[in-house]
Amino acid sequence: MIYEIKKYGSDILREEAKNVEKIDDEIKTILDNMVETMYETKGVGLAAPQVGISLRMFVCDKGDGVVKKIINPKITPLTNTLTECEEGCLSVPGIYKKVRRPEKIKIEYTNIDGENITEEVDDFLAIIMQHEYDHLDGILFVDKVSPIAKRMISRKLQAMKKETKKAEEVED
Fold it and tell me: Which of 57, 61, 106, 115 shows the greatest Cβ crowding within 10 Å of its Cβ?
């Protein structure tokens, strides 16, 4: 099932997501649907809040066909060295800006089998994971761009927010 992606201005994108208490068939189905939605929308990652589900989980595939389903993650930077990469977001369509993030991280999470996993990740996958992890705390990549870049996109963001609010009012 393909989920609708929540757009910039939607309140759920600014909430701190709740921990997944139990990994059951419903959670596994949601994650499968998130993978399907991620591929359908040509994304490399998708966090549950982006599809209107306030739970601490995300899916990602850096482009090698290896899908990761991450539940209740905790990320720790492993270096002070920052890498700069142009990012975009399915929830903020049409905007791409450079963001600086730690180039190597440790991620601790639970997989769909309930196993606790710890991995050291770098390069593009580390960027994707940090981007999706931010969604779980109500942070969007546009919050992390330089002040100049933020000024350049502020009108577009305001218009997007207005459009989202109007669309959500129609839904209610």
Answer: 57
